[in-house]
Amino acid sequence: MKFQKKTLGYTSNLSCNENLRPKKLALYILPVIAMISWGSAFANCTVGKPPVNQEMEYVDICDKENDCKKFSRLVMGTDHLIQANWVVDGQQEISDEELHAILDEAVKLGINTFDTSPIYVGNIEDKLGKWLDYKNSEIHEDGFYSNGSLNPDRNLYTISKGGFPLDLYYSQKLDSGSHSEELLTVLREQGLLGEKPTITDDGGIEVKNAPSGTYSSRLYGSEEQIKSRVSGELHHTANHLSNDITVYLMHRDDADFFKFDEIDRPQTPVNRILKALSAQEITDKVWQIGVSNWRTPRVNESLKLASENSDLLKPVLNSPYFSLFEMSERSIHAGGIQVFHKEMSSPEFQKGIKIMSYSPLGGFSILDKPEPRWKNAKASAKEKYDAGDPYWKNVFYSIFTEDNRQRYERVVQFTDDFNNEHCTIYTVDQMINAYALAHERADMLAVGPITIPQLRRTVASLGLSKMLTDDDLEYLYDGVVVQQ
User: What mean pLDDT do residues 115-123 have?
Assistant: First the structure.
């Protein structure tokens, strides 16, 4: 198998300072050694080399006036950062001090962009906002960073999310305002509205025993209703982040769901949604907007409409699911939209918007489990599925497919062969992250390390991604070996 370096067009702060090499060795090799399974990888090597000394890369995100900000190519995800019982049962929620140490380390390594949401676990958006409030004064000093050339803007950026469908399982009510007739029909047929619907004190409609995975779209209805509903959730995010929201994503498109399945109906026109998002009540609180979990035709339509109408705010960022572990017909969460290997390999795919994919490890880490990892991770997911956990009800059937099992076995063997070829000590999680980063349309990648060693390994994946060829990506995805 051939392994060749390739070059992509990103701004990089690659250090050529020989004096930094001992520091880099200590930074990366110690946590990696702790996790590596040595096996036969170094049969022909005297000493395993540390990962490539690759500094953070930056991507320009620009507004209509071409005022640009340099976002780190790796974006620090926060959804499960402080979550208890995420890796193993009995795992404690981390303290604010531990959280700050991880966030500090991310910035020291050059990450200046943070992905969050008001519904993420542990009130993390608010905790992130408090950390940002006092951290901004430190980030201007060169000495704060592992390399003084990192974070050239000397600023920290936030990507938060709205447009979440209204969760009827938790609220057990329909909010005031209009809802699609198709959703109402399903609720009536399931006996969830009752013969005489009960009106709640705030003008909503009581729903009886709505099962998990039942959602009403926040982006349905008139322009005024969409604006009002999005403004309501944006108010919380603005308070958490001190009105400093760099990019605000609509994390779902217009859709209703019952038991996690999308209800078939016409969608709200894209033009109407963009008009609502371009209202002053929203644009006063955010720098730019974007989309997430939108299908490609709707993404492309939003770009076309904004280019034709200067009154509309153009989405600058799209965030879909993309991983070596492809989702089955069942998404890892209601309304999750993925993009595929062939699409992400094409420079023409969703041209005109930056793509920041999420969940490169598949929405959780198989690699946290003991050997045999795939079998044990599947058993753990099934146990949580059987216990009724809504998240795992989706993940179990979405990720644990035969195709993904084969991809997992390929990437394990490929990593071993790659290390043997290059006398390196990359880990499997680094290879999976590098797979996502190495695609032509992988402008940015939202990652979810929850410890400092994981964070350091993840940043080192940037260097590894430069060493993977298109043939390597093809092999990892479908097992095809290209004849040389």
Answer: 92
* Number of domains making up the chain: 1
pLDDT tens readout for residues 219-278: 999 999 999 999 999 999 999 999 999 999 999 999 999 999 999 999 999 999 999 999
Location of structure tokens 């998404």: 331
For strand 261-262 and strand 257-258, is the pairing parallel, antiparallel, or unpaired?
antiparallel
Please, are residues 216 and 166 in contact by the beta-carbon 8 Å criterion? yes
Q: What is the pLDDT of residue 204?
A: 93
Q: Is the pLDDT of residue 15 over 90?
A: no
Find the mean pLDDT for residues 186-206.
Answer: 91
Give the span between the Cα atoms of 481 and 470, in whole angstroms. 11
Strands 354-357 and 444-447: parallel
In this structure, is residue 284 part of a structural domain? no
Burial environment of residue 368 by CB neighbours within 10 A (0 to 12, 13 to 18, 19 or more): middle
Token output for 246: 């760099």
Which of 170, 118, 110, 195 has the alpha carbon at shortest distance from 144?
110
Residues 267-325 pLDDT 10s: 999 999 999 999 999 999 999 999 999 999 999 999 999 999 999 999 999 999 999 99
The answer to whether residue 250 sits within a structural domain is no
Cα-to-chain-centroid distance, residue 275: 26
> CB of 50 within 8 A of CB of 463?
no
Does any domain span residue 188?
A: no
DSSP string, 58-108: EEEEE-TT--EEEEESEEEE-TTTT-TTSSSTTPPPPPHHHHHHHHHHHHH
Q: What is the pTM of this model?
A: 0.90
Contact 98, 1 (CB under 8 A): no
In the DSSP assignment, the letter for residue 368 is: G
Output the domain CATH number for residue 360: 3.20.20
Task: Give 348's DSSP letter.
Answer: T
Q: In sequence order, what DSSP letters do the residues of 66-77 get, joined into one string?
A: --EEEEESEEEE
Question: What pairing do the DSSP bridges indicate for beta strands 74-77 and 113-115?
Answer: parallel
The side-by-side arrangement of strands in the sheet containing 257-258 is: 166-167, 215-216, 257-258, 261-262
Answer whether residue 428 is part of any domain.
yes
Q: What distance in Å separates the CA atoms of residue 428 and residue 418, rounded to the nearest whole number?
A: 11
For residue 94, the enclosing domain spans: 11-155+320-478
Q: State how far the Cα of 200 lies from the Cα of 202, in Å rounded to an integer.
A: 5
